[in-house]
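Figure S4 source data
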Amino acid sequence: MEDSVVTQAERIAGDFLQEQTKTSYQIIGKGITNQVCVVETKSHKVVVRMNDKDTFPSFIKEKWCIEQAAAVGVPGPEVLSIGIVDETAYMIQTFIDGNNGSDSTVPKSDVWRKLGEYAKLIHSIQVKGYGGNLIDPVHGEFQSPSHAGSDGSWQGYVQYNINSLTESDRLIELGVITQMESQRVRKLFENLKNEPFRFGLNHGDLSLKNTIVNQANQVVLLDWNAEVSVVPHATVAQLMHYQILGLEESASVEEFKAFMDGYGISEKDLSETRHLLLLRAFDSLRWAIDRSPDLIEPYAAFAKQVIDMIMD
């Protein structure tokens, strides 16, 4: 498998650069969703990221995000080309020399503080709409796919999750919430619906593994999984999510504080963040119940952890 991936990356890079490959290799373990290869020619060294052709819109979105972020002062790789060849969507980026943020000798809290600064800059980018699909790159308009019970708007998303809190709710049957807790959650969600949130662009996966610290000790941001949502809450909720799951890439208490300092927010500014985390946990669990039964158990366990944290 690896050979064919590398061969394909060589072909894609060679066609674009019009040069023979000198060396190439696959990067294993850092890019979760895409196959990632490094290809070096006489005068260029590039990263080729590949996935099946249906994911091409995510490359369009990522290219747009990297360019917008660079314009507000967030360093990233340069996107040289995106396209589709032989059923494969690809993105060619400049290779960033340096160490992955999780392996760098720079103190991790310093990298997290910088990520806090970057998050604030990213939230200043002009966007419209709500959701994870970039539907109009010219105007930076995003959309969320609608589904039964939700029109794809933020209000529709919250209302769908309020309407799902019924007496015959699967979440009660799964032991995630009790009937009484369901009533309390309904109030929390009603409050979210009436909150005058600001909407902004979110990177979607802020973590040390998605950074490179280059020779000048500059932190370079990679691998977007972007969406427009409430800011800064959605970004902070993502960090909390990783902490609750105990993921390797989650920020420690000290690193989380460094992130908040870099952004310039205090924890008391974020009372709604936990409620947003709960909303997302419930929504993901309902999605799993409808579409992906094998994920019900882990998603239910996570939702229960968030409930316990909030109801304390």
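Figure S5 source data
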Amino acid sequence: MTAPAVAVVLARGGSKGVPGKNVARVGGVPLVARAVAAARAASAIEVVAVSTDDAAIAEAATAAGAVVIDRPIALADDQASSESALAHAVLALDLPELPSVVVMIQPTSPFITSAELDALVAAITDGADSAFTAAPFHGFVWRQDEVATGVNHDHAHRPRRQDREPEWLETGAAYAMRTDGFLQVGHRFFGRVQLVPTDPDRVLEIDEPADLARARALAPLLDPPVRPRRDDIEAVVLDFDGTQTDDRAWLAADGSERVAVHRGDGMGVSAMRRAGLPVLILSTEVNPVVAARAAKLGVECRHGIRRKGEELAGWLSERSLNPDRVLYVGNDVNDLPCFGLVGWPVAVASAQPAVRAAARTVTTVPGGHGAVREIASWLLEEDQL
């Protein structure tokens, strides 16, 4: 049986390279919440805390199920070390006993897994004093002075890759330490140090906006499929064009438009209403067909809306809804402000790439072809549809 372990996610505010970085969403989830979720899923970790000086980060951490440690200003500037913030957090938890192992997690590495965190704890309980995540590295490193020289190889006798011993790149994602030893030396590396292998495809550290864009593009490929359940959701908001339609319109000579909708979507909306879920159609489209469709479905409709994010924020406030428990379905870039407001941003399969990248999950079918019906099937049992 492993010794009790605590995890501390270090997430200060004030990032200069990517403002608001630790609450930026990847795969529809704030970075700090992704780190908390990985730690909470690790079987060897008993307590998950977030050390922060930022109210928005604290709110996201609390919603994700972490204990929040208020970080003093002196430990939150650019000059403060991660180790000093970690030591403060461990002692501030004020646990009955000092944990045997402390795991330090950086939320800017969005693809850390619970299995890797468990492996870090296991490394300490098996005899290491410090452990860290690392990826195999086969690159040739050079230094440029007056001339270029090889650092990890003799460039005059360049070996084949298969003849080289693999080297290891520290990922910066997570570290584990024997707690008493760490508090004594004040550094993450001491005594017997061991690395925990990490899949190099999952190694990414967000320091610049381009890194965040890459993480969002990779999330649909690396994250396991996530589907909300009924208990996760207390309201559903639907875009119209491209979500409940296939984004085409038939234009008559008199200028009127017609669109095609999917009968299965109507069944899905009706089932969600019967299950007690408020449903709102929110659209920029001014065509009266939007209101007509909402009236037929018996749901609230707000269309001709220029700023969908502001309108959605107002609707959530009017109904006193918890945004983290609201599901929003969209397909185009004007849905992105709404994605940033809710806990369950969902893209239809035909959505624009930027929308798919920002979504927490994606339907298997395109808009207008039963995507809303599919979402209803995630939330409800088959006999409720």
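Residues 88 and 279 are 45 Å apart (CA to CA). The chain has twelve helices and 19 strands.
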